[in-house]
Amino acid sequence: MRTAESEAIVPGATGRKQRRVFLHVGAPKTGTTYIQGILWSNRSALKSAGLHVVGATRGDHYRGGHDLRDLPHDSKDPRPDWTGSWDVLAGLAVDSSADSVVISDEHLAALEPEQVERAVTALRGREVHVIYATRNLARLLPSEWQEFVKHGSKLTFGEWTERVFSSREKGPGRWFWSVHDPVDVINRWSSHVPVERIHVITLPLPDAEKNELWHRFCGVVDVDPEAATEFEVAGNDSLGVAEAELLRRVNAALPDTFPIWHHRFLGRDVFATKILSPRSKGGKPQLPEVVRPLVQKRSEQAIDGIRASGVDLVGDLTEVTITEDLASGEPMPSDGEVLDASVEAISALLVRMGRMRDDRRRTEGKLRRQMRESAPMVRARVRLAGVADRTKLGSKTLDRYRSFRMRSNPDQ
Length: 412
What we know:
By secondary structure, the protein is an alpha/beta fold. Helix content is 52%, strand content 8%. It has a six-stranded parallel β-sheet, with helices on both faces.
């Protein structure tokens, strides 16, 4: 049932809209990257239409979510420390002149009630609304397994799914159900946000109208969907079965000392997104037989819970109902198929590395290059080498310098 949120009035202020903030909390793998891409690519136009995406980049929302979840920051992590980021972001939301503000981070679905309280308290002065999207559980599981693999998981699809259903308190099940149990997410957020201000969007079916998810999102935040004109945004594309298995085997071969942030930025953003995804032919792995009845049962429980929760439902629960044969899907790839994927991936990776090297050379400072290659500089280096060679210490120092230059730039 939809609620007339766009008609909300500030008590005692006739005709004036309530100042609202919409927290788009996920869930992961429900079109969040797509929505975020549109929000940021059309930020100025949306602000003119009455919806302000606060912050400078989507990373501000990501860091704010990390801060809210009390995640420790490793001093070796190259990313900026996110401590205090939520208070800064919430301050921008409260101070915005726009009637409606949006913050989007798919990890916010995992907040515990005390963290929800902190999030809402920091937004005091605005009416807080929560947007949460959900999808068909049978289609979600293969996508989420791939996401775990992109972040460094070594578990096969069978191992991963069995662990997801064996425990909600540890292993992959702990994170999975914290963001993908709609009833639990609703209960945690409704501890400090009225349930009628929690909007649950069902993910449109593959044959739905183009940009239907965006239109549903706009219906919640009360903005004209036509205000956005840029829809060529990066998505979080899925891998084929062979490519996902290749990445999993690479994870297993990497040393335990390989930092988690390298898994995210090199394994996910470069190897998976730039190298493996373009060659993928799609497809999803077959659900293990042992979890199929559990998938069906959990799906029915979630649908019944959403229906009884009193939230604002946007879409249709038939879109998340499992109607497909749970035995469908592809078997895990053979070693030969993984080998083929490996050869193509290595080739593409070498090509990309070559382009990156060429780009670095082209962008090197012109003045620096001219100085290094100018005749006076070349002659000066030759004379300096002659001076250094007159002493044993100087000669050894020059040898070490040459060795260092050869390692850092073998073309010189």
